[in-house]
Amino acid sequence: MSTATTDAPALALRLYDSAARDVVPLAPTVTPGVVGIYLCGATVQGSPHIGHMRSGIAFDVLRRWLERCGQKVVLIRNVTDIDDKILSKSAAAEPSVQWWAWAQRFEREFDAAYRALGVAPPTYEPRATGHVPEMIDLISRLIDAGHAYVGSPGNVYFDVASLPDYGSLTNQRLEDLATTEDEAQIDDDVEADKRSPRDFALWKAAKPGEPSDAAWDTPWGRGRPGWHLECSAMSRRYLGDEFDIHGGGIDLRFPHHENEQAQSHGAGWGFARHWVHNAWVTIKGEKMSKSLGNSLVVAELLKAYPAPVLRLALGTVHHRSTVEFSQETLGDAAALWERLTGAITRVFKQYADGGGNLVDAPASELRSRPLPAEFTAAMDEDLNLAAAMASVHAALKALNAALAAPAPEPAAIAAAALDLRAMLDVLGLDPLAEPWRAGVLGGAGSDGSDAAMGALDHLVAALLDERAQARAAKDWGRADALRDQLAAAGVVVEDSAGGARWHLG
């Protein structure tokens, strides 16, 4: 673990701990001032879809908030680049592809998707294939401790009954479980010589017909790692015997995370002090999965929607809440992004001068700027993004009001814009920061089209606010008249649960 940051402020952050099943204070005491996070990353068997990105974005927001609170974050996100599915899919490809080339192709796609959506790179991103010695050492340790045994050559299993706290993460009793293997990892060869069907594979013997370079020599026979082994070995390699947060999608809690914890506890390591899990992305109420045929590949979505709109749709919902992904969700996100960028770019362009720009502050300045108390309180309470976004909307409204004042004051406008930018920076959505800056500012042209759109957005927003007030007062005639007035100007208004949004017809 990195050197302690002794002058780091005390954390007020409370997070839901999946093991404690409660919201608890996060107190990074392993190394004060440093938060070590291990995040389960991609199994690079295919192209990344938005379900994969949910976890990356959720933990990017957590990381940003921790850093905003003065902590140094060491984030490890692994890559599983050897796996049964990688071997089978690469062999089935037409023409067939070397398994390692198949894995690298999709690892690059994942990297591109993370970068496109503004997810900062992890501190380290270890691959499973680069840490086989650490895995072999861990197996030896577990065998010596009486927690693992050797089956037929190449097969090594974890003896689940040997560990008293097995099931503590997911609150399950061993006698109630039929298996502790993931369904995708179960086959006759793995099950053949287990002492109990509840035991799980640490090391799997090489199979006839598989590539010779997809296996490694060990004292127990030639083979490759089980799915869970790599994470216990790599988390210890980069974060030590004990670290602050283990994260990942909620679908990994069992058996993957339960088995990781068993391996690490069996080796005598403290392992994760807190467990943080993000919920699924669903489409029409169904969890996203390739088996349902409703996967949405990031690269394809980016052809139809701007990257910040995707991030806004996925990354401004509480990490423990399901994201219902739909055209309406994307439409609402697009409308909000348009309003945010419209307001900030208007200020940027109107108040630029030869000596600088009132709102073009660097990230370092934004991150030292005081945040609204309501925003800070929301983020500190389990990253309550619904309440945090209420502060964002209030700041946007204040900025628009400052711009619409009869005698606009540049200092007040700049302050409102910087307040808004500072909150969006925490969410990875500051329009004037990378990777969004070029797209937001790059469309400025000499024909004045940007200024015209900015003015239109400002006028439409004012009318929509007036219409919302009329609807709240149940003055339906006035509300309909305002909508008709906009329609006559070619502005289409769509009402949704998140409020009215508009586009040109």
The low-confidence parts are 444-451
* Number of DSSP-assigned strands: 17
Secondary structure category: alpha/beta
- The coarse silhouette is elongated
Give the strand order, joined by hyphens, for the main sheet: 4-3-9-10
Share in helix? 40-55%
**What is the first-to-last residue Cα distance?**
56 Å
Q: Biggest sheet, in brief?
A: 4 strands, parallel
Average pLDDT score: 89
Computed Rg: 26 Å
Strand content: 5-15%
Query: DSSP helix count?
Result: 17
Key words describing this protein structure:
505 residues; alpha/beta; four-stranded parallel β-sheet; four-stranded antiparallel β-sheet; 17 strands
Molecular structure report:
There is one protein chain. The protein is an alpha/beta fold and 505 residues long. It has 17 helices and 17 strands. The strands form six sheets. Strands 4-3-9-10 form a four-stranded parallel beta sheet, sandwiched between helices. Strands 5-6-7-8 form a four-stranded antiparallel beta sheet, covered by helices on one side. α2 (84-92) crosses α3 and α4 (132-144) crosses α6 (229-239).
